[in-house]
Amino acid sequence: MPQEDPLRQTQMDAFVTRTKRPIEVVEASKKKQRIKEEEEVKEEIATSSETQTYSKHWTYPIDILNPSFRIEDGLSSQEGSNIRKHGDLDLLYFSPFLKKDYAQQLYLHLLNNMPWYRVTYTVGARTIRTPRWTTVFGLDDTAEFEPPEEDGTVAGRGVRPKKGGKLPAKTYKNDPRPLPLLLSQLKKLVEEKTGAEYNFCLLNLYLDGKDSISYHSDDEGFLGENPTIASMSLGSTRTFLFKQKEKDDGVAYAGNKNKNKKGKGVGKGPVEKFQLNSGDLIVMRSTTQRNWLHSIPKTTTTVGPRINITFRKAMNVKGTNNYYHFNVHAALKDSGENEAHRYSEGNMVKWKGVVDEE
Ligand SMILES: O=C(O)CCC(=O)C(=O)O
Ligand SMILES: [Fe+2]
């Protein structure tokens, strides 16, 4: 999980404040059309409610609707291309991984059915508001979820160490959430096509061009030496940038921080740029995290929502504690955003909000 830089965010926010241009009138009508389509899909789902099933778990803030489509049918026949550059950038890029119409169904399903959080956390004296919506499911390699009761209920069940025995109290600061059906099916597909195993799904929702992820690398110790991270894009196209970490005597600095003294933006080294489309999967492998930073920059172009799912393998308890803290729980209690939100006509609203009786 990267640490955001509030100063940089403020600077970037200033960028996106702009006056209304005619092109924005066109964009506004596109947005209206997009929202109309989203509403139609929701209505379709509502009318077929008898056949709906849900993934349920006591750790979920809501029951999570299972899809009515089969995700395995959505696999594109496109093979991944190996991209090896500059010696240590090692990528496998499926463009696309999912067929266009399946990617769209999956995007809308996740947008409308996931519990989303806007996390605010502190680093020393600084309070940092994550510039995107997030949610996470999974458990590190040392433990497993206890099986559900025979009657199918899972309420009250916890996790246990894989090696047997009892989990010491307070091992996990927050209760880990098992993958809902859709994500476990998707994980299986991604594992088969990428030849790696994953135990976590981290989801990011970038509502518009102001949402972003600043330059960071996913190189925490709990991911192991050379982690494979598979990253799926759904919804609007966004730019994905890679930039080399600054090196000292040929060795990249450890950690997430870009140590370039000039700090912000693009450093001296090479930058690799991708336009990630809906249904694409980009896999970061071997020495990539150790030597490269990646980001989704803010954009002043009008863009609709984009969802990103990263599949990762956390080796130990630290990974589980880190992921739930930074993607679900570390929200300011008085901001109201520590509660699960859902997407509704371009806005985020609380799942458990009060609604008027019709
Ligand atoms: O949204 C993306 O494509 C990148 C997300 C990412 O880098 C992360 O979650 O660590
Ligand atoms: Fe990342």
Automatic annotation (TrEMBL):
Residue ranges of domain Fe2OG dioxygenase in the record: 197-315
GO biological processes: DNA alkylation repair
Binding site for 2-oxoglutarate: N204, Y206, H216, H294, R306, T310, R312
Protein name (Swiss-Prot/TrEMBL): Fe2OG dioxygenase domain-containing protein
Binding site for substrate: D219
Domain of life assignment: Eukaryota
Region listing for Disordered, in residue ranges: 147-171
Molecular function per GO: broad specificity oxidative DNA demethylase activity; cytosine C-5 DNA demethylase activity; ferrous iron binding
Organism, scientific name: Planoprotostelium fungivorum
InterPro entries: AlkB-like, AlkB-like_sf, ALKBH2, Oxoglu/Fe-dep_dioxygenase_dom
PROSITE patterns associated with the record: FE2OG_OXY (PS51471)
